[in-house]
Amino acid sequence: MARRRRKARPAGPDGMRRGYARSEERNEALRATLVPLGPDERPPALRVAIGVALALALANLVAFVLGADVPGSGSRTGGLLFVAVMLVAAWGMWQRRYWAVLGFAALLALITVAFSLLLLIASNVLAVVVCLAFAIAAGWLFWKLIRVMGRMQAPRRMGPERVS
């Protein structure tokens, strides 16, 4: 079985410049396809993220009221701080603030990594299923929010094909 040899790329700064130029062309083509969010538009992924933030805030508030204590967490005020952060994130995402979506996406990325790492110590099938469910759900929502953030930053274009 003969192996096909790939054409060697030129080494050095010229090869890197061409690679960056091709990458920037692809990025520009993708940016051109983004349609900015409408005045009151909230895509489904953004609504799901708002719902998740509110659900996390409510669950932590209920746990705090019922006196739940997380081992190793020190004081219980951290739970209230998390509730406040989730409520601010939900409000910011409802207002379509980029910083809120970016912060929530960062939290989703951390959740995805944490539950993926917890798979290493999962000792039974239930633990594996829970870890996979959280990692996949958080990763999926993270991925969907990337396009929402792109649309939030997309410039408004005036022209016959797109009028905002």
Q: What does this protein look like?
A:
Helix content is 68%, strand content 0%. It is mainly α and 164 residues long. The protein has a domain at 44-153. α2 packs antiparallel against α3, α2 (44-65) crosses α5 (125-153) and α4 (98-118) runs antiparallel to α5. The protein is extended and about 60 Å long.
Unreliable runs, pLDDT <50, ≥5 residues? Answer: none
- The Cα radius of gyration reads 22 Å
Number of helices: 5
Mean pLDDT: 85
Separation of the first and last Cα atoms: 57 Å
The coarse silhouette is extended
Strand content: under 5%
By DSSP, the count of extended strands is 0
How is the quaternary structure best described?
single chain
Helix content: 55-70%
Biggest sheet overview: none
Write the element-wise H/E pattern from the N-terminal end onward: HHHHH
Class based on secondary structure composition and strand pairing: mainly alpha
Fold blueprint:
Layout: H1 13-33, H2 44-65, H3 77-94, H4 98-118, H5 125-153
Helix pairs in contact: 2-3, 2-5, 3-4, 4-5
How would you summarize what this structure contains?
The protein has five helices and no strands. With 164 residues, the chain is an all-alpha fold.
Question: Could you list some keywords that capture this structure?
Answer:
single chain, extended, 5 helices, 164 residues, mainly alpha
